[in-house]
Design brief:
The complex is a heterodimer of chains A (257) and B (316).
Chain A (H helix, E strand, L loop, with lengths): L5 H17 L2 H23 L11 H32 L3 H4 L5 H27 L10 H25 L3 H17 L12 H7 L3 H14 L6 H25 L6
Helix pairs in contact in A: 1-5, 2-3, 2-5, 3-5, 3-6, 3-7, 3-9, 5-6, 5-10, 6-9, 6-10, 9-10
Chain B lengths: L4 E10 L2 E11 L4 E5 L6 H9 L6 E6 L2 E2 L4 H6 L1 E4 L11 H11 L7 H10 L15 H13 L5 E5 L7 H16 L3 E5 L3 H7 L2 E6 L2 E7 H5 L4 E8 L6 H4 L2 H4 L2 E5 L2 E7 L5 H10 L4 E8 L2 H20 L1
Parallel strand pairs in B: 3-8, 3-9, 6-7, 7-8
Antiparallel strand pairs in B: 1-2, 1-4, 4-5, 9-10, 11-13, 11-14, 12-13
The chains are: A mainly alpha (257), B alpha/beta (316).
Chain lengths: 257, 316
């Protein structure tokens, strides 16, 4: 049989990664949506009357974009990292490695599937939240841009973590000591304007801050950082993580002996 | 005609271990090729390098003329590997996994007829919508074979395909691999069951401690052992049969059991007629006899033990 279409090989792997998470929707979509809405309920109710971050914007409304981006960050990362480490541990990664799929196609399929899950969870959070809270859409292009950038960055980072980790314990450490603190300290629950000067400066070195700030700009038209800079920083981070992932895949680091 | 698989000067190290040491041989197109060796000989490492699952430190391998590194796409299109371990993806059914695997090789709906044929031939029709997790070991093995063949590869590698399977499935797998071979595929078989290699393979390479210690046709290998065994039944049942034999025959004796005697004879130096004459002179009448030629197992053990002893002597 002659060689088939390269594009179809990429599509098959992408489809497999999407179908995989859709087969366990309760775990991969419903649970993170409920978690985000619980944060909204608890923090919104507790601080609604006490905090006004942007003028004329309720605290609950301010929280929604942050929680959406936090869902994107956590779920995009989880999608590629958990799929990869499960395949490594179960040994079924061999079926992909035996195929003519290139490193670039492998990277693109895993990252794009992570984008689909991240955006799907964020959209679910959005559509449930707006049933109860008015949320403006100042710059829809920014919302789409940062949602895709955020999920692609974390999808690629999940790929790096999944390749690096040799057991679930290591992946869990990566998630809990790196992803979670960076996402919580990036302005999900507050504006960095409210922080002491030193913490404000520290936040500027957190790439997740630019994702959340730019994403929030899409809703309210207001941001702590210049939106152009946020796009550039996010693109730069995506490029960096993608290069790391592609080099690891090309060298077969920890996946080809 | 180019070789189906050409292995040239392949070296592979794992730390201090020289797992493959200058491996060079060709697997002819259309052959049924056996790759044998004791555990740790380097068989799986060599297969992994052929399949792109591992990389050689030096040397090269090409599949149907395509280098496995430089022209990896075409090399992998030409190769189907049935892994040794029963690995599977518990998220998918048999139908889904075959469709996905076919997709990885760039095939879509046009490949459905071939996938249906594979499912039918491997008796997977009843389990087509069953999750892989719920299949028995034998059924999982069949799915692994189907996955390796979704893209109709020219070269099929079966890495210990019958390890741990029951007799019925083993026979079914033998029939299936023979059919693949008859249809023109090159088959490379690694197995611990030497009778399996003896029954199926035309050409055999034996690896030991990362080196090729033999590469020959099956007949060529078998003829390397110059001995055959002569089994006799005599008219006297006694535990002291050995004492009745002349000294000349005692040197050739393998074992005695009641009225049964076995001798190991050199094919050119020892004549069966001389043995029968010596027994007659000792007062023993032969009532039955048959000879047994050396099997692959004897050749295999001879080659691998010889190399091991030689290495131990050098090291010692």
């Amino acid at each position: 049989m002659k060689a088939g279409s390269r594009a179809y090989g990429f599509y098959a792997l992408f489809a497999k990664e999407v179908v995989r998470f859709l087969k366990v929707t309760v775990q991969t979509v419903l649970t993170p949506v409920v978690t985000a809405l619980l944060y909204l309920l608890v923090f919104g109710q507790a601080l609604e009357a006490h905090v006004e971050v942007y003028e004329g914007v309720s605290y609950s409304a301010f929280l929604i974009p942050g929680l959406m981006m936090m869902s994107i960050i956590q779920n995009s990362f989880a999608n590629s990292s958990s799929s990869l480490i499960q395949s490594k541990m179960m040994g079924n990664l061999v079926f992909v490695l035996l195929s003519p799929i290139s490193s670039l196609e492998f990277y693109a399929a895993f990252t794009l599937a992570a984008v689909v899950r991240g955006v799907l969870v964020a959209m679910a959070v959005y559509f449930v939240a707006i049933l109860f809270i008015d949320l403006p859409l100042a710059h829809p292009w920014a919302i789409v841009t940062f949602a895709i950038l955020g999920s692609a960055i974390l999808g690629a980072l999940g790929l790096v973590a999944g390749i690096w980790a040799e057991k679930f314990d290591q992946l869990s450490a990566f998630q809990n000591f790196f992803i979670l603190p960076l996402s919580f300290l990036s302005g999900v629950f507050y504006s960095i304007e409210s922080l002491p000067a030193a913490w404000q400066t520290a936040s500027l070195f957190n790439p997740f801050f630019y994702l959340i700030d730019g994403f929030r700009y899409g809703f309210f038209g207001v941001a702590d950082a210049d939106v152009g800079i946020s796009i550039m920083v996010s693109l730069g981070f995506l490029l960096l993580i993608s290069i790391v992932a592609l080099v690891m895949l090309h060298k077969g680091y920890k996946i080809r002996g | 005609m180019a070789a189906a698989v050409s292995i040239q000067g392949v070296h592979k190290h794992f730390g201090a271990l020289h797992a493959l040491n200058d491996i060079t041989f060709d697997v002819p197109q259309g052959s049924f090729f056996g790759l044998l060796g004791p555990n740790g000989a380097g068989k799986s490492t060599l297969i992994n390098i052929m399949a792109g699952l591992s990389r050689a430190d030096a040397g090269s391998i090409s599949i149907m003329g395509h280098d496995v590194v430089r022209d990896f796409r075409m090399a992998r299109h030409s190769l189907g590997v049935v892994p040794q371990e029963l690995v599977y993806d518990p998220f998918f059914t048999v139908r889904e996994i075959l469709k996905l695997q076919s997709g990885y090789f760039g095939h879509g709906a046009e490949n459905k007829a071939w996938l249906d044929e594979l499912v039918e031939t491997l008796s997977l029709s009843d389990k087509i919508d069953t999750n892989l997790h719920d299949l028995s070991g034998g059924m999982k093995r069949r799915v692994l074979i189907a996955q390796a063949l979704v893209h109709k590869p020219d070269v099929v590698v079966l890495d210990e395909p019958t390890a741990g399977v029951d007799v019925e499935l083993r026979q079914a797998l033998w029939r299936f691999t023979k059919r693949l071979h008859d249809d023109g595929s090159t088959i490379i078989l690694t197995t611990h069951y030497l009778e399996e290699a003896e029954a199926l393979c035309e050409k055999i390479a034996i690896l030991n401690r990362g080196e090729v210690v033999a590469l020959d046709s099956k007949q060529g290998l078998l003829s390397r052992c110059p001995y055959r065994t002569l089994h006799l039944t005599v008219d006297k049942k006694t535990d002291k049969l050995k004492e009745l034999l002349p000294e000349y025959l005692q040197l050739l004796l393998v074992e005695t059991h009641k009225n049964e005697i076995s001798f190991r004879l050199h094919k050119t130096e020892h004549q069966i007629g001389d043995v029968l004459e010596a027994l007659k002179n000792a007062g023993l009448i032969v009532v039955d006899l048959y000879t047994e030629e050396a099997g692959l197992e004897e050749v295999f053990l001879g080659l691998t033990e010889f190399v091991s002893k030689e290495t131990a002597e050098v090291a010692g």
